[in-house]
Amino acid sequence: METQLQYGKGDLTVExxxxxxxxxxxxxxxxxxxxxxxxxxxxxxxxxxxPLRELVGAGERVAVVIPDITRALPRERLLxxxxxxxxxxxxxNVTIVNGTGSHRANTExxxxxxxxxxxxxxxxxxxHDAHDPxxxxxxxxxxTGRDLYMNRExxxxxxxxxxxxxxxxxxxxxSGGYKGIFPAVADVVSIMDYHRASVIGHERSTWGVLxxxxxxxxxxxxxxxxxxxxxxxxxxxxxxxxxGFYCDEVLATHAAGCEANKSATMVACEREYPxxxxxxxxxxxxxxxYQAVKGMSAAYQIVAEGGLIISVARCNDGFPDHxxxxxxxxx
Length: 331
Fold this sequence. Notes:
Elements: E1 2-7, E2 10-15, H1 35-44, H2 52-55, E3 62-67, H3 75-85, E4 94-99, H4 108-115, H5 117-122, E5 124-127, E6 136-141, E7 147-151, H6 152-156, E8 159-165, E9 168-169, E10 173-174, H7 188-194, H8 197-200, H9 214-223, E11 230-236, E12 242-248, H10 250-265, E13 273-279, H11 289-300, E14 303-312, H12 325-330
Parallel strand pairs: 3-4, 3-8, 4-5, 8-11, 13-14
Antiparallel strand pairs: 1-2, 6-7, 9-10, 11-12
């Protein structure tokens, strides 16, 4: 049997020498027929609050947080639509914060492609640097009682907007929501505390679980230490087409998007398999070995005891530093 696996920016043809094969994949979803119109409708008539345009005053400083290049959000489409809605805000009052978490900084070329050349030429775009205390400010105590610092431009803004996309996540239940803030713009000590073994190894820190999930609890508590004025979350299909907008207050928006995404992307599986062939979803999700753990974790949910996982990931960036991650693996 032949099948296609997402690999880098293309597909990889895999031939399985057996006819006894089960293919598990998300439902096929069509993209919205007019994404721009759907965006305008979502931010002008949000789930339960005021329209985005009414929330931001002309003289206020605005921070817009976007996920970094390891995430598939179509920023180059969303940001021009966002700034059309905020046309009363001078570009010099806006900072786009690239929420890298503890990941590497994105290059100027990458940033220009991520946000689009028109936006990159008019608005300030900065990489968050979790390792540089000089770029951070204190915001309060984390859920575990530690001092928590966040990106200075984000902290000093009068209004804060977070953008992200929702998909199942192997520790947080789902991506999106406050995860676009924490750990995305936090200091590295807080990020390492967030990733501690007792939390990420907890049985509730897993795919599709939001409530009583200690990973998600940290995200929500720490991400909400400063007010987030508006959340723009989307769901996507395999072609990066937008299938839904979820815009407004963070928790309500995120809950609605997760419910929709769960029914579309998570597949019931009634048995375990001796061999599981998996992928990390292709570019940009499979850029390094650290990110590829997500595909492995998905496969682990359904592989039989003593079984085999074959994971396919392009890993353009190879082994990321991520603190001691590369060093530990090579040892």
